[in-house]
Write a structure and sequence with these properties.
five-stranded parallel beta sheet
Length: 332
């Protein structure tokens, strides 16, 4: 069934997610000024996720990094952006109108350090014509399927620029370790997908891992073509959970937990499960034990596999996003 429905062979791409991080890391010798203090990363959809995940890794791995990264998902740059900032402009298709608009504005504001990331399209042409630093993104069929490569490449740029220090041996070891558990994660995901079928999927985690929950939610939206929402502890204990007093539909709730999390947050997830576990079909998913990188990569892959198999259960192709393409045509 998977071969018949999976027109773009996303199975193979998901299977190789850990290797993407390493391939991206080994892909570039680009560097930005060592004294860079502020970075703006412009991207939309799947082309914006890498910056969120890069920030997550830097934070959870407690890497010493003193520049700020502002993620921009809009037509205009943040007001404070000036020529002293470094700008990353990312569009897998190379034709995302918001990013092309941001690049034009960056040029007007006189940004001297510009890095372009694309697979093809107008953005790639502009980079070649104006000789901007350029990172070639390989064919991943869909933008959301290339974030491992993006994160690896962005990480290497920071290393090349001496903005962070990274011991490559543990990095490579963790990637290989993550690749070794791909099959077991796939089997686990098949069970999770069955549990999520015909329900609205909620994804919760703690604040430090919030972007993993966001990516899981997006995976369910784009791969399984279904409704999904995310939030974080402890904030959701102060508002969102009250909304489940009167249910309007059936839910499947995944809570991504880190055994190394703050003890009070662990207690919050436990109490939430006790109070609403049956009502919301709560299932706690504990991250695999290991380094921050290992936790990040394996958790992301589990989410991809789960959304992939949920799509197959719905008998739909996980790859295309027809509604997005239709919307783009109407915007022209």
């Amino acid at each position: 069934m998977s071969k018949k429905l999976d027109s773009q062979n996303l199975h193979a791409i998901i299977n190789g997610l850990p290797q993407q991080f390493l391939d991206g890391y080994n892909s570039t010798d680009i560097k930005i000024p060592t004294d860079t203090k502020k970075i703006v990363f412009c991207g939309m959809g799947g082309s914006a996720l890498p910056a969120n995940l890069l920030k997550t890794y830097i934070s959870t791995a407690k890497i010493d990094f003193h520049a700020s990264i502002k993620i921009n998902r809009d037509y205009v740059l943040p007001k404070a952006t000036d020529k002293t900032w470094c700008g990353f402009f990312n569009s897998y298709s190379g034709n995302t109108e918001e990013i092309l608009a941001c690049l034009k504005e960056a040029e007007k504001r006189g940004l001297k350090n510009i890095v372009v990331l694309a697979h093809t399209g107008e953005l790639k042409k502009i980079a070649a014509k104006k000789k901007y630093a350029f990172i070639q993104i390989p064919d991943a069929k869909q933008p959301r399927m290339a974030y491992g490569f993006y994160v690896g490449a962005l990480l290497k740029v920071l290393v090349n620029s001496k903005l962070i220090k990274l011991d490559e041996k543990p990095f490579i070891k963790d990637i290989n370790k993550a690749q070794s558990v791909v099959s077991s994660l796939e089997m686990k995901a098949q069970k999770l997908a069955k549990a999520a079928k015909d329900k609205v999927v909620l994804v919760y985690t703690t604040n430090k891992w919030k972007y993993t929950a966001m990516v899981w939610k997006i995976n369910f939206n784009e791969n399984a073509k279904t409704q999904s929402f995310w939030n974080v502890f402890p904030e959701m204990n102060h508002n969102e959970m009250v909304g489940f007093t009167h249910l309007l539909t059936k839910y499947k709730t995944f809570i991504i937990t880190d055994p190394d999390e703050h003890s009070r947050n662990i207690k919050r997830t436990q109490i939430f499960t006790k109070l609403l576990g049956k009502k919301l079909n709560v299932q706690n998913i504990e991250m695999l034990k290991g380094s921050a990188l290992y936790k990040l990569v394996t958790t992301l892959q589990l989410g991809l596999w789960t959304s992939y198999y949920l799509a197959l259960l719905y008998k739909i192709d996980p790859a295309p996003v027809d509604l997005v393409e239709k919307f783009k045509k109407l915007m022209k």
